[in-house]
């Protein structure tokens, strides 16, 4: 390689980094010559034990009683053979460890309900090995936490004493223990210090500090855009993927705002890019099944940032969509985002940041990933709140922000040949889109106020017949809402089989407030308002969230929806084309398998909520329009449910200004009579497909009283644990879900989905088997559970887990929306007063639910690609 070529590569590699360094100054007001380090998330504590082993402890109360345990080790493989050796060593550790001689680590984990996901227990990356054990219920047995941490220390000690590859052992200082969950940090740290005595002290070897230069290693070469097409001949579809690369962020800068800015700029760019591609495809009447923009950061891959843009289309449209994708990327590189595009993308991306910052829950696995990256790569562990504050308080003018974003996009995107001609851009409404067509706005007073102790809420009855319920709880200035209307597709007298499953999506493909549904939803998103629809069998909900200072706009949007909605045949038929493509591409996936099982279990049932290609009838747009126009003709036949942290007086004051804008009729809907026939007995179906899978669904006509309701949730936990134990040695990962129904009949259903996991992430003792053997193991596990039930001790353990589960849910406003909605729809309140209801569960009530499931309907559905 010539010196000139090397210098050019160095310049290209640093181009984006220097741009981002420049961007830090206007955002943060920092006037130093180097970017400041970001503050560590206060929920994270870290340090180094006397033996040299690092630790990261995370207090995360979003899932009471649960925690993730992990061990990460830095590695430096020089070849594929080295990585293979690391994989062999990791898999061996999961089979046998010094303190797990009589019970393998795999048996210990599976026996305690610690299931492995599809990517297994261990992951060998380019620069690290990560052992990750998820969702450990710490109250399951005495000593479970100690034993799990002992397993991590056994692995750390073994890697430091036994050659991993070519007589190379790991340093204790190259490893870190991570515990994230509902933990007492001091208690866990005391245990870590005790276990660290197992490991000899530091050997005095100096730790290697991260490099402090922008190009601490051989520069990554600039790569051209890679364009690939994956064809699926079975479905007649294809996925077009464009891959491009950015530079690796230097280790000494990964703890600064540099990584945050790069991530935020990418989120703004992909928001605009996805919107533009979707707009062009719809304008040219080209259906698509997916449009995705994904970034794999250098902290994850330890190499250049990798970016992926993909579009799924029908095979006959592949050539044209390639042209569109290249044209859009090329136009963004040359011309950047237009002002209205930038404003929309910035608002949406910033709003998403704020939503994450106030979220009441964060997965323990996400914290494990952050801590592992911090240890291996030096990246920052920044709280979502601090990350949002960094951008939302910057005071950066729009003109400057757009200029900097466009400079970033131009530096990021590679040159790519694109077809000649202009690239269409989404047309934003030039008028004031906040002036929605709502009709006369007549203030209306509250006629009657009631207080309900069940959900600790205020019920307001307005003079015009509208009703609202408000529950006050901490939500950081966000209103969560659900407008529940007392009519569903079960009220459609001539309902065609399966069409109701698409009614929810059809709503926002119509015309609303004098604009098409696409523009209406874009308007709301730019203002931070989320709105979705859920058309059910006996009721329909319009739900989402909004900032409290946008409550008035939200109410205007709901009024406009109810007063002005009409069908848009072109948009709705385009949506149906996209759905056909998506459903065809998803054949064999989880939800498509459940659709098949539902048709087997409920033959001839017209009201299934599961989507299928058969439900996309030619006249679906007209029938959906009739349904919604009838629904919105009675806006007072329902209730608006609000959950937020504003004072009730302030919420009521806003409602009094806007509730008069709904056209009321005083008409009421009658719950429909729906015929439902479920087959009984046990049946098995085997089909060929692209991927191996096995699903088992058990359904029963269970009366939904409070004891059965809680007992059934415990049965769901017990079924999952039984199957995890039974299938752990076969390399199969298990997904178990329980669902209740109150209409058209009361009942309970358990859905079990079983798919293969990655063998290279599991112990060598795991041996895959054919579906006959695994199906027999499933049957045996379920039969043993039915025959033996649960002991008093097991029942108490699951009751404790269920109590913790409810304790976590109390802080979730969406939980309370569900509770209040179900109370209004069914007259039952099964989730409130949960302590007493869980206490009433006994081994006998659990056995009753198991017996109901055994005597109900059971369908086994196996797909084999062999």
Q: What key attributes describe this structure?
A:
single chain, 866 residues, alpha+beta
What's the short version?
The protein is of the alpha+beta class and 866 residues long.
What would you note in describing this structure?
The protein is an alpha+beta fold. Helices cover 41% and strands 20% of the residues. It has a 7-stranded mixed sheet, sandwiched between helices. Strands 1-2-6-3-5-4 form a 6-stranded mixed sheet, sandwiched between helices. A 5-stranded mixed sheet has the order 20-24-21-23-22, with helices on both faces. A hairpin with a 5-residue loop joins strand 22 and strand 23. Helix 9 packs antiparallel against helix 11 (384-392). The two termini are 49 Å apart. Residues 1-13, 24-35 and 202-219 have low confidence and may be disordered.
* Strands in their spatial order, largest beta sheet: 11-12-13-19-14-18-17
Rg calc: 29 Å
Q: Helicity level, as a percent range?
A: 40-55%
Number of strands: 24
Separation, N- and C-terminal Cα atoms:
49 Å
Number of helical regions:
25
Principal-axis shape equals globular
Which structural class is indicated by helix and strand composition?
A: alpha+beta
- Low-pLDDT stretches: 1-13, 24-35, 202-219
Q: Main sheet, how many strands, which sense, barrel?
A: 7 strands, mixed
Overall pLDDT score: 86
Q: Proportion of β residues?
A: 15-25%
Give the SSE layout.
Layout lengths: L2 H26 L15 E5 L5 E6 L6 E9 L5 H14 L11 H7 L10 E3 L3 E10 L6 H18 L13 E7 L3 H11 L30 E7 L4 E9 L12 H26 L4 E9 L1 H4 L4 E9 L3 H18 L3 H19 L6 H14 L6 H9 L5 H15 L33 E7 L4 E6 L4 E6 L5 E8 L17 H4 L4 E2 L2 E2 H10 L3 E6 L4 E8 L3 H14 L4 H17 L4 H12 L18 H13 L5 E7 L3 H11 L22 E8 L4 E8 L5 H22 L4 E10 L5 E10 L14 H18 L3 H18 L3 H14 L7 H6 L3 H12 L2 E8 L2
Parallel strand pairs: 2-6, 13-19, 20-24
Antiparallel strand pairs: 1-2, 3-5, 3-6, 4-5, 7-8, 8-10, 9-10, 11-12, 12-13, 14-18, 14-19, 15-16, 17-18, 21-23, 21-24, 22-23
């Amino acid at each position: 390689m010539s010196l000139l070529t090397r210098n050019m590569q160095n310049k290209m590699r640093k181009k984006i980094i220097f741009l981002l360094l420049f961007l830090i100054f206007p955002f943060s007001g920092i006037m130093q010559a180097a970017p400041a380090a970001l503050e560590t998330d206060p929920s994270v504590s870290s340090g180094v034990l006397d033996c040299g082993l690092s630790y990261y402890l995370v207090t995360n109360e979003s899932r009471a009683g649960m925690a993730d345990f992990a061990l990460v080790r830095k590695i430096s493989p020089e070849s594929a053979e080295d990585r293979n050796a690391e994989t062999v060593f990791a898999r061996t550790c999961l089979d046998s460890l010094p303190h797990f001689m009589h019970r393998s680590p795999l048996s210990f984990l599976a026996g305690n309900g610690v299931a492995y996901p599809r990517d297994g227990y261990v992951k060998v990356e380019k620069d690290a090995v990560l052992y990750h054990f998820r969702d450990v219920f710490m109250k399951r047995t005495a000593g479970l936490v100690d034993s799990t941490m002992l397993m991590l220390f056994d692995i750390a000690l073994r890697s430091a004493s036994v050659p991993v590859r070519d007589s190379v052992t790991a340093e204790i200082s190259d490893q870190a223990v991570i515990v994230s969950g509902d933990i007492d940090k001091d208690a866990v740290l005391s245990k870590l210090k005790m276990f660290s005595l197992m490991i000899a002290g530091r050997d005095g070897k100096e730790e290697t500090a991260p490099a402090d230069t922008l190009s601490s290693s051989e520069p990554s070469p600039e790569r051209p855009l890679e364009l690939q097409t994956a064809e699926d001949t079975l479905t007649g579809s294809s996925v077009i993927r464009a891959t491009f690369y950015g530079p690796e962020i230097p280790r000494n800068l990964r703890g600064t705002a540099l990584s945050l800015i790069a991530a935020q700029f990418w989120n703004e760019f992909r928001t605009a890019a996805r919107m533009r591609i979707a707009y062009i495809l719809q304008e040219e009447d080209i259906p698509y099944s997916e449009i995705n923009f994904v970034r794999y950061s250098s902290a994850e891959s330890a190499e250049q940032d990798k970016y992926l843009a993909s579009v799924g289309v029908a095979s006959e449209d592949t050539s044209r969509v390639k042209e569109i994708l290249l044209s859009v990327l090329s136009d963004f590189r040359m011309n950047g985002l237009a002002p209205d595009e930038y404003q929309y993308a910035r608002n949406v991306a910033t709003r998403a940041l704020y939503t994450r910052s106030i979220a009441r829950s964060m997965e323990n696995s996400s914290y494990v990933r952050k801590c592992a990256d911090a240890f291996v790569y030096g990246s920052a562990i920044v709280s979502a709140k601090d990350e949002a504050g960094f951008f939302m308080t910057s005071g950066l003018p729009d003109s400057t922000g757009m200029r900097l974003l466009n400079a970033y996009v131009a530096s990021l995107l590679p040159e790519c040949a694109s077809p000649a001609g202009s690239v269409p851009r989404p047309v934003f409404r030039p008028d004031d889109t906040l002036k929605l067509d709502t009709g006369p706005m007549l203030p209306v007073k509250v006629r009657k106020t009631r207080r309900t102790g069940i959900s600790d809420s205020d019920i307001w009855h307005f003079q015009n017949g509208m009703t609202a319920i408000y529950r006050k709880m901490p939500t950081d200035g966000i209103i969560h809402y659900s407008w529940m209307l007392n009519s569903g597709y079960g009220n459609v007298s001539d309902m065609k089989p399966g069409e109701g499953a698409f009614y929810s999506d059809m709503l926002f493909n119509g015309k609303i407030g004098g604009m098409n549904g696409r523009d209406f939803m874009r308007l709301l998103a730019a203002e931070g308002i989320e709105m979705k629809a859920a058309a059910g069998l006996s009721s329909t909900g319009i739900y989402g969230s909004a900032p409290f200072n946008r409550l008035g706009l939200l109410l205007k949007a709901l009024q406009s929806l109810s007063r002005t909605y009409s069908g848009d045949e072109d948009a709705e038929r385009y949506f149906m084309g996209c759905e056909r493509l998506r459903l065809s591409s998803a054949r064999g996936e989880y939800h498509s398998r459940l659709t098949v099982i539902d048709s087997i279990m409920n033959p001839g049932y017209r009201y299934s909520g599961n989507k299928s290609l058969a439900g996309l009838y030619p006249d679906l747009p007209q029938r959906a329009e009739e349904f919604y126009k009838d629904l919105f003709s009675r806006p007072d036949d329902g209730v608006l449910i609000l959950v937020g942290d504003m004072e009730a007086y302030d919420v009521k004051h806003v409602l009094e200004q806007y509730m008069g804008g709904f056209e009321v009729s005083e008409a009421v809907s009658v719950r429909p009579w729906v015929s439902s026939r479920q087959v009984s007995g046990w049946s098995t179906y085997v089909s060929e497909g692209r991927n191996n899978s096995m699903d088992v669904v058990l359904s029963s006509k269970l009366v939904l009283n409070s004891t059965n309701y809680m007992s059934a949730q415990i049965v769901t936990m017990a079924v999952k644990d039984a199957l995890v134990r039974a299938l752990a040695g076969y390399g199969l990962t298990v997904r178990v879900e329980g669902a209740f129904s109150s209409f058209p009949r009361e009942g309970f259903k358990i859905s079990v989905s079983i798919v293969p996991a990655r063998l290279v992430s599991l112990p060598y003792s795991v041996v895959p088997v054919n579906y006959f053997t695994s199906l027999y193991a499933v049957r045996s596990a379920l039969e043993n559970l039915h025959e033996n039930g649960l002991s008093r001790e097991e029942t108490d353990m699951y009751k404790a887990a269920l109590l913790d589960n409810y304790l976590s849910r109390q802080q979730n406003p969406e939980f309370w929306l569900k509770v209040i909605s179900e109370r209004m729809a069914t007259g039952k309140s099964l989730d409130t007063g949960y302590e007493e209801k869980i206490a009433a569960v006994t081994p006998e009530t659990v056995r009753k639910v198991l017996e109901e499931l055994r005597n109900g309907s059971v369908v086994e559905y196996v797909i084999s690609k062999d």
